[in-house]
Amino acid sequence: MNAVEVASLVVTRGKREVLHGLDFAIPTGQVTGLLGPSGCGKSTLMRTLVGVQAGVTGTVTVFGEPAGSPVLRPRIGYVTQAPSIYDDLSVTENLTFFARVLGVGRAEVARCVEAVDLVDHADDVVAKLSGGQRSRASLAVALLGSPSLLVLDEPTVGLDPVLREELWGTFHRLADDGVAVLVSSHVMDEAERCDRLLLMRDGVFIADGTPAEIKQQAGLAESADIEQAFLAIVRGDAA
Amino acid sequence: MNPRITGAIAARVLTQLRRDHRTLAIMLVLPCLLISLLWWMFDDLPGDSFDRLGPALLAMFPFIVMFLVTSVTTLRERSGGTLERLLAMPMGKLDFLFGYALAFGIVAAVQSVAAVGISVGLLDLTIVGPVWLLTVVAVADAVLGSALGLFVSAFARTEFQAVQFMPALVIPQILLCGLFVPRDRLPDVLGSVSDVLPLSYAVDAMQHLTRSPATGEVWRDLAVVAAYAVAGLALGAATLRRQSP
């Protein structure tokens, strides 16, 4: 089953066209990686799925509803690139606030703090946390109420490798429970952790498939990495 | 609109304020100090200047302080991504606006109880009308200041720019509100300008309370201030866009 279905999506910001006619789907129960260099349109695409992007044409449906429709709001967890939480509140206070806005119980707060491994810092004011801890607190907010679609914009940037490993574990656990997880990254070495990849460059997809399929498409061996595949496809396109 | 969400936003804003001791002091203690300063300035002079100027000041404090605090805090919500996150959640725009108005209304009530208490109890400000009505006017002023602050925060990109709106939007209102020159003796053009500025009505209401036990005029002024506050909130709502470029 697909959580997201998109056809001929074009997004214009100001006078500039940022996304040039995308067609794709995001299945439930998988971790889909959206990979590409900074500025290629990853965040714009994610904002479109959440329904906060203006200047959108084409069809974007999420669980059968047009993106941005009010019935979808409780079903989508969204983490923006910068941690969007209140610096002057503690982790628990932040989560308690968003939980009240979402109308979910207090037990959810404890569960989500635990899911991002911040139990030891639950009562610390966010301003005192490290960058990685802050992004985890922001991620915890997105987990509140167990949304069926998680849209995570570069959630693992700047994190310690051990923690990154753990977070990817969390994403796959969520996917196993049937959640559709979309994770963006500009770091290609995270590609292998995804069930499926969308490789993006300058507002178009240059590849869409499992890591193995993409390498095959690029004419590379299984042992090659996605960065090599990315380069091979881009150069092949140019040739 | 949903009372649970509005309440959550108001409670969250109040928790943030409680954390920020300096802002809290500026909101609550500074008005008391300033009104005492005004009293002291006129203490040795003959006449009733303090009785004339004090009420106008009581109308201005909540307006100015709430304007500043709201424009900066909502700008932070806009630039920090928390507003975008909230708008992607099942939160109505009115929940956001009324949550803020409610929180700052409560702070304004505390602020004006303190400032009015000191003015009347300690500094012998003469109030002929009901004292509690002073507080009601002050709360309306505060909500007005919050509403305008919310609105202008949409046009500022940095906190520095937000603060710059204060001289542009607030000082003309102070000059024309009747404090320096009685409103009916202003040149015609300025008189008409003064007639459309909300702070003029707030100061009028306060001055009526010092002079007369009748409250009819006060309620009429209060209605004008409240109408401006609602209009400001409506304009503020128009600047909260769920979708942005």
Automatic annotation (TrEMBL), chain A:
Matches recorded under SUPFAM superfamilies: P-loop containing nucleoside triphosphate hydrolases
Keyword flag Nucleotide-binding: yes
Classification via CDD domains: ABC_DR_subfamily_A
Hydrolase as UniProt keyword: no
Residues of the signal peptide: none
InterPro entries recorded: AAA+_ATPase, ABC_transporter-like_ATP-bd, ABC_transporter-like_CS, P-loop_NTPase
Name listed for the protein in its UniProt record: ABC transporter ATP-binding protein
Source organism per UniProt: Nocardioides humilatus
Automatic annotation (TrEMBL), chain B:
Sequence ranges assigned to domain ABC transmembrane type-2 in this UniProt record: 18-243
Transmembrane segments: 24-42, 54-75, 96-120, 132-155, 162-181, 222-240
Keyword NAD included in the entry's annotation: no
GO CC field: ATP-binding cassette (ABC) transporter complex
Membrane topology note: Multi-pass membrane protein
GO molecular function, one term: ABC-type transporter activity
Presence of the UniProt keyword Transmembrane in the record: yes
Main location: membrane
Any one GO BP annotation for this protein: response to antibiotic
Localization in the cell: Cell membrane
InterPro entries for this protein: ABC-2_transporter_component, ABC2_TM, ABC2_TM_bact-type, ABC_2_transport
Domain of life assignment: Bacteria
Key words, A-Z: Antibiotic resistance, Cell membrane, Membrane, Transmembrane, Transmembrane helix, Transport
Protein family membership: Belongs to the ABC-2 integral membrane protein family.
Protein name: Transport permease protein
